[in-house]
């Protein structure tokens, strides 16, 4: 019960911050999420709707990081485990508590791909002022990685360019 209340409070704070940002003309830059113990930033213009993680229908003979398909608001979406895709490995099954915090973040419809990323936890909205330092993408990092940011607490956040991710041949090739 406490988890539901905490989730409602988080969603309420996010809605309030979005409303304040709209009225002040200042839009947040990123949706902050956590997956597989790592912290990621999704550009707000590339992220779509956020859904609770429900049942997915498994698809045989697919990559370990492709969890199947889900009906999200009447649309059929492929579901990708973000942590599994980034590491190239499958992830361990989640506990009931972890499943309750997990979310599906759909890619923006402008990217023209019906896909949702499974993340472990929403961490709110971030703008440039939330960070004290950044480093440009390393040449050996995946092409869809953007800059890496360090927040005022010293935590490292990796930006993921969802548009670039949606165009990766490996991302689009779900067959095992």
TrEMBL record:
This is Chemotaxis protein CheW. It comes from Polaromonas aquatica. InterPro entries: CheW-like_dom_sf, CheW-lke_dom. Residues 27-171 form the CheW-like domain.
